[in-house]
C-alpha cells in the first residue's frame, strides 16, 4: 500500500476558501503557514470587508424600518402592518443576526483561533512520524504492542465531503433565494401584465423606495443589490464559522481516535509500558485543554445558534404558511437552511461525544492486568477520568448532541403553533 503524507493545510482547504470569499483573513502571524499569502491584497480585503459590514447594518435597519414606516407603494397594499408582516421581517432578521454574531466571533476571537491553530499544527503528526507509524503497524499487524493509527485519510475525506456539501448547499440556497424576485419580474414582463410590481427579496424600507405610487426599476435594482450584498456577507461568514468548527471537530476526532487505538494497542507487559501510558495520559490532557479552548471560542456562537435556529425554523415556517406563494417559495430556502445548520453543529458535537466514549473501553479491554502495580493504578484513575465523555457546551447550559437537535425541532414546532394561534 502506497504511503501518503498529510499536513494540517490539507484539512484547512475549505475554511481557507471560505475566508477568501469573505475577504476576511484574521489569522496572520509571521510563523503561520495558514495566514495571508498575498499581503498586498490585505488592504483591499479590509475595504471590501468594511463596505460589506456597512451594507449589512444598513439592510438590517431597513428591515426594522419596513415594519414601522408607512410606504406609498404597491407593496403596501399587499403587505399591510400585520402579524404576518412582522413574522416575515423577524424571519429575515434572524438570518442576518446569525451572520452578524458569527462575524463578530471570528473577528473578536481571532487571536484565540490562531493560537488553537498553532497548537493543532504542533500536535499534528509529522511526516516522519506518519511514516514510522505506518511501517510499525505494517510489520506488527494484529499483534499486541503495535502503535496506534492516525486515520488521516478517513478524516480528511470525511471533513472534505462534509464541508464541500455544506458550502454547495448554502451557496445554492443563496442563489435560489435571490433568483425568485428576478424570475417573478421576468414572468410579469413576459406575460405583459398591466401593472408590473417591483418587489425585492424582503419587505424593507429605503428612502428611494418610498415616494412614488409605483416603484421604479432603478429603485428596485438598488434595493435588490443592497439586500443581495448583505445576504452574501452573512452567508460567507456563516460558511466560515461552520467550516472552521468542522475543521476543529475533525482534528479532535482524529486525535481522540488515535488515543483510543494507541491505548488498546498498548502492551502492559512491555518494559516501557508505564512511560508510554504516562505519555498518552499527557496527550489526553492536552486534547482536553484544546477542547475547552475551542468551546470557549464558540460559546457565544453555540448559544445563539440554539436560540436563533429554534426561532428561525418556526418563523420561516410561519412565513411559508401565512404569506403569499412567492414568499413561501423564497423562504423554503431559509427554512431548509436553518434545519441543516442546526443539524450540522449538533451532529459535530454528537460525534465528539461518541468518539470520547470509546477511550474508556479501549483501556479496559487491553491487557492492563499484566502491568505493574503503578501501571494498574494509573489505569484505574484514567478509566474513572474518561468515564464522562468530552463534549461541546453552550456556556454549560446544554451540550451539542442529536438529543439537543430533537429538542430544537420540538420547541420550534411548539412556537410555530403558538404564533399561528396569535395570527
Give a quick rundown of the structure.
It is found in: Cell membrane. This protein is an all-alpha fold.
Describe this structure in words.
With 423 residues, the chain is mainly alpha-helical. It has one domain. Helix content is 73%, strand content 0%. Residues 28-37, 72-81 and 210-214 have low confidence and may be disordered.
What secondary-structure arrangement, pairings included, does this model have?
Elements: H1 8-11, H2 13-21, H3 42-68, H4 74-78, H5 83-108, H6 110-123, H7 127-139, H8 152-190, H9 217-265, H10 273-297, H11 299-322, H12 325-356, H13 359-364, H14 373-385, H15 402-422
Helix pairs in contact: 2-8, 2-9, 3-5, 3-9, 5-9, 5-11, 6-10, 8-9, 8-12, 9-10, 9-12, 10-14, 11-12, 11-15, 12-15
Average pLDDT for all residues: 80
Query: What characterizes the major β-sheet?
Result: none
Query: How many runs of DSSP E, i.e. beta strands?
Result: 0
Sum up the overall morphology in one term: elongated
- Summing up helix and strand content along with how strands pair, one would put the structural category as mainly alpha
Strand content: under 5%
Helix coverage percent? over 70%
Radius of gyration: 26 Å
| DSSP helical segment count | 15
Quote the distance from N terminus to C terminus: 65 Å
SSE string, helix = H, strand = E?
HHHHHHHHHHHHHHH
When the domains are counted, the total is 1
Low-confidence segments: 28-37, 72-81, 210-214
Amino acid at each position: 500500500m502506497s504511503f501518503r503524507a498529510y499536513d494540517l493545510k490539507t484539512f484547512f482547504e475549505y475554511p481557507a476558501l471560505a475566508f477568501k470569499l469573505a475577504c476576511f483573513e484574521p489569522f496572520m502571524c509571521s510563523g503561520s503557514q495558514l495566514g495571508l499569502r498575498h499581503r498586498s491584497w490585505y488592504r483591499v480585503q479590509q475595504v471590501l470587508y468594511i463596505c460589506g459590514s456597512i451594507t449589512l447594518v444598513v439592510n438590517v435597519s431597513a428591515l426594522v424600518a419596513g415594519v414601522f414606516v408607512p410606504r406609498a407603494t404597491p407593496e403596501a397594499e399587499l403587505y399591510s402592518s400585520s402579524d404576518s408582516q412582522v413574522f416575515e421581517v423577524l424571519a429575515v432578521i434572524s438570518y442576518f443576526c446569525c451572520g452578524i454574531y458569527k462575524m463578530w466571533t471570528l473577528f473578536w476571537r481571532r487571536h484565540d483561533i490562531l493560537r488553537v491553530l498553532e497548537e493543532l499544527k504542533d500536535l499534528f503528526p509529522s511526516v516522519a512520524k506518519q511514516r514510522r507509524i505506518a511501517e510499525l503497524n505494517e510489520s506488527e499487524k494484529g499483534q499486541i504492542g503495535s502503535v496506534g493509527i492516525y486515520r488521516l485519510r478517513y478524516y480528511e475525506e470525511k471533513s472534505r465531503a462534509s464541508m464541500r456539501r455544506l458550502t454547495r448547499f448554502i451557496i445554492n440556497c443563496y442563489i435560489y433565494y435571490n433568483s425568485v424576485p428576478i424570475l417573478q419580474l421576468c414572468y410579469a414582463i413576459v406575460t405583459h401584465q398591466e401593472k408590473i410590481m417591483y418587489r425585492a427579496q424582503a419587505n424593507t424600507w429605503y428612502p428611494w423606495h418610498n415616494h412614488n405610487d409605483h416603484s421604479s426599476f432603478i429603485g428596485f435594482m438598488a434595493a435588490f443589490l443592497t439586500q443581495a450584498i448583505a445576504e452574501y456577507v452573512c452567508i460567507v461568514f456563516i460558511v466560515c464559522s461552520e467550516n472552521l468548527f468542522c475543521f476543529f471537530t475533525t482534528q479532535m476526532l482524529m486525535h481522540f481516535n488515535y488515543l483510543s487505538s494507541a491505548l488498546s494497542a498498548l502492551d502492559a507487559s512491555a518494559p516501557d509500558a508505564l512511560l508510554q501510558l504516562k505519555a498518552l495520559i499527557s496527550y489526553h490532557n492536552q486534547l482536553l485543554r484544546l477542547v475547552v479552548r475551542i468551546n470557549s471560542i464558540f460559546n457565544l456562537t453555540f448559544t445563539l445558534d440554539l436560540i436563533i435556529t429554534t426561532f428561525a425554523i418556526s418563523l420561516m415556517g410561519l412565513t411559508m404558511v401565512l404569506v403569499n406563494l412567492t414568499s413561501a417559495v423564497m423562504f423554503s430556502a431559509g427554512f431548509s437552511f436553518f434545519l441543516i445548520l442546526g443539524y450540522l453543529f449538533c451532529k459535530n458535537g454528537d460525534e465528539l461525544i461518541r468518539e470520547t466514549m470509546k477511550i474508556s473501553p479501549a483501556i479496559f479491554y487491553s491487557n492492563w492486568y499484566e502491568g505493574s502495580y503503578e501501571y494498574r493504578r494509573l489505569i484505574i484513575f484514567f478509566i474513572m477520568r474518561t468515564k464522562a465523555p468530552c463534549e461541546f457546551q453552550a456556556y454549560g447550559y446544554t451540550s451539542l448532541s442529536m438529543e439537543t437537535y430533537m429538542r430544537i425541532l420540538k420547541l420550534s414546532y411548539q412556537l410555530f403553533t403558538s404564533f399561528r394561534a396569535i395570527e
